[in-house]
Design the sequence.
């Protein structure tokens, strides 16, 4: 029996060795070395306080990732994904050109020992800027139209200032900060809250994630009152130079829409502007008037119109002589006890001065010449002729006429 066990023992050992060798060869053939590209490993940025601690801010490109090539045994490499690796960029080691080197490693230490990792783009450029803080006013912007007969008297934001902090380029982009409130159909005061909206110079909305700000919700109060239309009366002060006068005043608008409490509106029907100075003027004068300067307390202008454009026409004074006959003179206050007659059928020259346009259309009848005989008895009298007063025409002559009063037989 013992002999059988050891029969051909050397051959058996040789067979075993050959089997092991074959197994090793087969195993190595089956688990050959391979390479694999792994894409999109997200980069983690660490030690950002190395930048922010210097009163600066940094920004990395969105979706920053890195692609790698790994090499190792097939049974390890073929199952690897981007989740098996980490990519780290240490901001405390940023170069003077703002480049940060990226280090990639396998999360599993045993796997890492059997891998070779390679990548071409091993750094990322980081944008670094000064950190600034700026305080900006908040404007209330309304959308829609309030109810008929009403208007917005005031719009108040609380707080009315907002502090914005961030990269200098981002903060400097902000031109306006507004809150939008819908007032469609409103006939009473509104109180609400709204988030601030940041606008650039062109009025385009800016993404608020580019900076931080201290007020996330703004309280807004909008006062809505009744409206009233008021006429505008325009007057001048002073006198043009000798030989000239004001011919007309043209201004736009001639009325304005205002808003206020009912009691305040009831006190006013017109706005009088009476301080347009024409002293020593010899030609037309143009000016503008800030209407708010003339509004009574408690009354506010509706809309964006702030100024009234005024043109004062100045013309030279000219003279004209017309002929008045005694028959043109009206006798006022006559009694039926007397008869009234002029001893002479006489013509009287009347010199007028004023604007050419007014003189051209004026006739004797337009002067309404008259004498008043009320209380006079029989006799011969001299009367001074009265004539109508004109704004833009003056009568330079005094006309006296003889009148005889006789009793009725």
Sequence:
């Amino acid at each position: 029996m013992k002999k059988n066990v050891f029969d051909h023992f050397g051959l058996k050992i040789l067979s075993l060795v050959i089997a092991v060798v074959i197994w090793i060869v087969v195993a190595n053939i089956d688990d050959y070395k391979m390479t694999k590209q792994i894409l999109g490993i997200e980069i983690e940025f660490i030690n950002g306080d190395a930048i922010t601690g210097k009163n600066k801010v940094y920004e990395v490109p969105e979706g920053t990732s890195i692609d790698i090539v790994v090499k190792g045994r097939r049974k390890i490499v073929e199952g690897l994904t981007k989740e098996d690796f980490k990519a780290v960029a240490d901001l405390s080691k940023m170069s003077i050109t703002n480049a940060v080197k990226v280090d990639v490693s396998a999360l599993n230490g045993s796997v890492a020992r059997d891998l070779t990792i390679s990548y071409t783009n091993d750094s990322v450029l980081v944008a670094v800027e000064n950190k600034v803080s700026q305080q900006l006013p908040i404007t209330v912007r309304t959308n829609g139209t309030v109810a008929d007969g009403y208007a917005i008297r005031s719009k108040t934001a609380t707080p009315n200032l907002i502090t914005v902090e961030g990269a200098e380029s981002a903060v400097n982009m902000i031109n306006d900060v507004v809150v939008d409130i819908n007032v469609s159909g409103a006939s009473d005061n509104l109180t609400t809250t709204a988030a601030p909206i940041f606008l650039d110079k062109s009025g385009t909305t800016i993404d608020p994630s580019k900076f931080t700000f201290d007020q996330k919700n703004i309280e807004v109060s909008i006062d809505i009152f009744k409206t009233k239309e008021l006429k505008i009366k325009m007057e001048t002060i002073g006198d043009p130079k000798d030989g000239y006068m004001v011919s007309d005043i043209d201004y736009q608008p001639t009325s304005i829409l205002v808003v206020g409490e009912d009691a305040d509106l009831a006190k006013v029907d017109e706005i009088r502007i009476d301080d347009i100075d024409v002293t020593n003027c010899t030609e037309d004068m143009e000016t503008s008037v800030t209407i708010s300067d003339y509004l009574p307390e408690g009354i506010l202008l509706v809309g964006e119109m702030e100024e009234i454009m005024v043109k004062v026409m100045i013309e030279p004074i000219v003279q004209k002589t017309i002929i008045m006959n005694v028959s043109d003179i009206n006798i006022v206050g006559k009694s039926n006890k007397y008869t009234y007659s002029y001893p002479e059928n006489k013509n009287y020259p009347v010199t007028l001065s004023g604007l050419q346009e007014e003189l051209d259309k004026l006739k004797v009848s337009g002067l309404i010449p008259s004498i008043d005989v009320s209380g006079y008895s029989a006799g011969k009298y001299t009367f001074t002729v009265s004539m109508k007063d004109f704004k833009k025409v003056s009568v330079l002559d005094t006309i006296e006429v003889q009148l005889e009063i006789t009793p009725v037989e």
